[in-house]
Amino acid sequence: MAATRLFWERGYEATSIGELTAAMGIRPGSLYAAFGDKKSLFQEVVRSYGRSPVGAFMGVALEEPTAYGAFARILREAAAIYPDPSHPAGCLTISAATNVTPQDAEIEVSLRTLRNENLATFEARLHRAHQTGELPPAANPRSPAAYFAGVIQGMSQRPRDGATAAELTETAELALTAWPAAQH
Q1: What's the domain count of the chain?
Q2: Which one of 20, 128, 135, 167 is separated from 85 by 20 to 30 angstroms, measured CA to CA?
Q3: pLDDT (tens digit per residue) in 112-129
Q4: For the stretch 42-73, what's the b/e string if a residue is b when 16 or more beta carbons lie within 10 angstroms of its beta carbon?
């Protein structure tokens, strides 16, 4: 979808109604009739992105049998997906949130909420791993959840600065070395 590409490349704020309607091949009135306003179009774009292979890979990966396997898959897939030239670099929900003005704080809040939901999902998966003994008893599931969320967010930005899949793969493998180990 043309609107997805524009929001992903430029962010919410920097994408104008004129650019959206030109890219979509419609008149402004048609955009307003179909979506109501730019915010509503953006929210539909984010929902659609979340169901796409690029946006949904983390949820699928979290279904791996082990938590380590889930996070290894997430990091490795992010390393391949984020710099893929078939779409804009990085992650829409991270890159579209830049430079949101105070009058569009609702957009910033909704994107922050999505990112925090991902963090909560990570933490829940790690709590299950803690309960099953996959994480050592002294491990606090919140800490690796926040760590891996931060790494993934950073990995999303790096391709916008020229990072390759090879570089991101090295980052992913390095991040996996931080997996909580049993204390001896």
Answers
A1: 1
A2: 20
A3: 999 999 999 999 999 999
A4: bbbbbeebeeeebbebbeebbeeeebeebbbb
